[in-house]
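Entry for the shared binder. Reason: the reviewer on the internal report wants the predicted structure included alongside the sequence.
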Amino acid sequence: MEYFERPSGGEGAVLVHLSLRQHGQDEDLDEFQLLAKSADVAVLAVITGSRQRPDPKLYAGSGKVEEIAEAVKQLNAEVVLFNHALTPAQERNLERILQCRVLDRTGLILDIFAQRARTHEGKLQVELAQLDHLSSRLVRGWTHLERQKGGIGLRGPGETQLETDRRLLRLRISSLKERLEKVRQTRAQGRAARQKAGVPTISLVGYTNAGKSTLFNRLAGADAYAADLLFATLDPTLRRIQLDGIGPTVLADTVGFVRHLPHQLVDAFRATLEETAQADLLLHIVDAASVDRDLHLRAVNEVLEEVGATAPILLVYNKLDSLPDQEPRIDYDEEGRPQAVWVSARDGEGLDLLLQAMQLCVSAPWETLTLEMTPDLARLRARFYGLGVVESELPDDSGGSRLCVRIQAPDLAQCLAREGLVRADVVLEAGVG
């Protein structure tokens, strides 16, 4: 479909940004311009204004639309980009007046995603999001082909071209959802295998352009694409790394989030975002130098809530190189657990502290336990000695002993399972080590 084909080279665009005093959905103009840059658009003009509320027909007022039309004509612009969500009717009305293509914020983000998708899975997800967006924008542009008017030579198959288009779209959307469901199942099997092998997953999340890919490359020694663009990373990247005190660990770099991320994108990328939802630890990367830091934090937390992510979160304040008064450090909560780490992924400052905090967050707590070892549990006793977790042993009169061990819960459960036992069968006393 021509909808998905983009002309080569940047297109000339007029950007429109309106402040809505009663709407509560104001977007960031700087971020909008960076979105346009990320879409390889040449910004010819930026038109701003303010309204109490959006106009139902044109979103902007008629006077502002005339100003936009004049700019389009003088600058020979090919597209007008609105930093807002437009209804299908508003898009059609604006295109009729402006005599050029009109895209809203959602359409612009979808276009960036279409350019960045590299893997088969990524392309499927982008196409699904685009089709979902397009399905509400089909209009009666095919009346000359309609064959339902009756009469000789005008009797047809019983559906208009518009209905045919909608039916074909529904079929394609259904097909894409089935294929993505298979991707989701494959990912679930991979996660189950890693969990069975005791390999934890650490997922990097954060606002777009916060420096996730740069940090990912530092931690994993990888060469994932990193650039000062929004949505530089689209396809998820997984790498296996070794962490001191933890062992093999899977590190996942994911797509960046943005304020008011289109719902169809969240739905389309649900298979990918499940890597985030099912992670053992989330590294929430934050641009520490951004003036909108708190807004970005809230936007990411909203998407995490939407995809059902419940893993512990470690905040990573990145770009410390832009804050000359800050030093790398770990912030702890009242219980002594790492809560935030301040680093510079670009310069590598504070990465040793980040690895230390990751180890503390992912590692299971150590427990000091007193176990009753009867004579028939000689193999279990040998396992504990083999792991090097025995701190002391006191023999008893029955030929058994009381074993004091310092061990992590997963290791204890694995040892007991091999003997067909549960914790209550052997543990006499327990405490945090």
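Summary line for the report: The CA atoms of residues 99 and 273 lie 39 Å apart.
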